[in-house]
Design a protein that fits this description.
This protein is of the alpha+beta class and 385 residues long. Helices cover 35% and strands 20% of the residues. The strands form three sheets. Strands 1-8-10-11-13-12 form a six-stranded mixed beta sheet.
Length: 385
């Protein structure tokens, strides 16, 4: 290890086209949201409004995109014709819910998956507007959302489970095989053979433990429940420990160059999480990079908030990361090569850094390899501020 120091014109409002329903002189304009400067077409979700007669008086642009029905065709139609929804059993939803003739105490329908003509799924919720709690329905307000985002989340969760299950199968098979062999034929093996098999079992058990820890970390990151237990951290000493792990495992000491800049600010962070970040970044550099791995620790400069921080850079001299892949590095299951790994490590690293209030970036290093840089704020505990 080397150590160095230095200093259009489509209809936008039903109010212009739909006739005013009788008997409701105080009704608000059907094409508005009630908020100045905001038009229904400005809303990100589909909005459909039916008046007290059950005819559509508002059908915004998002509703048109989701249903593939132009607004000018939907306006003035009965709600069940403009929006012919069915549940997943093929039953007509408006017949089932009967917003105008149903229970007078009902205020709407919670969001659920329904089907448009052709079988396309859409998320639908509805609110029944009454002048008084048990009065007749004056308006039915329907919100529409596509299911693509939810489907992506479901696919991501399914892929996570499949990946972890696949990664667990191999070490579990090994553990089961070796333990069954030892239990059944213990006396047939020499002490050296027994030790080798037990060491393999121990290594595979450690791999299983790490996979489970990764799964728990992802769950905490996704739910915003990742806890950070701050205490003083000697980041320079932490870097030294991780370099020593790799040299002990057989990497040549001169493969690593560590530069510690002077006058580092005090760092309050979770030491276990810092070890997790450093371990992942150095492992990536050693496994996927080439040449010298450079680790530099320096005071963070130029922070927008003016807060002190510590900057750590890990770079190598390998082929680097293709430009088109840079924006996917910190996503789940991204792998820089086919040389092992679950593709979850950098996703977890990003979550851990952000849980500390820091940032992490990836780019190309000065010698062409990948360069990861993370910045952690001083992060003093509240009782010391």
């Amino acid at each position: 290890m080397t150590v160095g120091t230095d200093g259009p014109a489509q209809t936008r409002s039903a109010a212009r086209h739909a006739p005013e329903p009788p008997g409701h002189p105080d009704r608000r304009p059907p094409g508005g949201t009630g908020l100045p400067g905001i038009h229904p077409d400005d809303l990100p979700d589909g909005l459909v409004v039916a008046d007290e007669t059950g005819r559509v008086v508002c059908f915004n642009a998002a509703a048109g995109r989701i249903t593939a029905v132009p607004a000018h065709r939907a306006l003035g139609l009965p709600l069940d014709r403009a929006l012919p929804l069915e549940d997943l059993k093929g039953r007509r939803w408006w017949t089932l819910t009967d917003p105008y003739g149903g229970l007078a105490t009902r205020s709407g329908q919670p969001e659920r998956n329904l089907l448009l003509p052709g079988g396309r799924e859409v998320l639908v919720s509805a609110r029944y507007v009454r002048e008084h709690p048990t009065g007749p329905v004056r308006r039915v307000v329907v919100s529409l959302r596509g299911t693509e985002a939810r489907r992506r989340t479901e696919r991501s969760h399914a892929e996570l489970i499949a990946t972890v299950a696949h990664e667990l199968r191999s070490p579990l098979t090994s553990v089961k095989g070796f333990t069954a062999t030892l239990l059944g034929k213990w006396e047939r093996f020499s002490d050296d053979q027994k030790r080798l098999m037990l060491e393999t079992v121990d290594a595979d058990a450690g791999r299983i433990k790490r996979l489970i820890a990764e799964l728990l970390d992802i769950s905490r990151i996704d739910s915003g429940r990742l806890e950070v237990r701050r205490q003083p951290v000697d980041i320079a000493a932490a870097v030294g420990r991780h370099v020593q792990v790799h040299t002990t495992a057989g990497q040549p000491p001169d493969r690593f160059f560590v530069r510690i800049r002077p006058e580092l600010p005090p760092l309050w962070a979770d030491p276990d999480k810092i070890d997790q970040i450093l371990g992942n970044l150095l492992e990536n550099a050693v496994r996927h990079g080439e040449g010298t791995v450079t680790i530099e620790v320096a005071p963070a400069t130029g922070r927008d908030d003016g807060e002190e921080g510590t900057e750590v850079t890990v770079s190598d001299e390998g082929p680097g990361i293709p430009e088109e892949s840079m924006n996917r590095v910190f996503t789940r299951f991204w792998r820089g090569s086919k040389r092992g790994g679950t593709g979850l490590g950098l996703y977890i690293v990003k979550g851990v850094v952000e849980a500390h209030g820091g940032t992490i970036t990836v780019g190309r290093g000065p010698r062409g390899g990948a360069e990861f840089r993370f910045i952690l704020p001083v992060g003093l505990p509240a009782h010391l501020v």
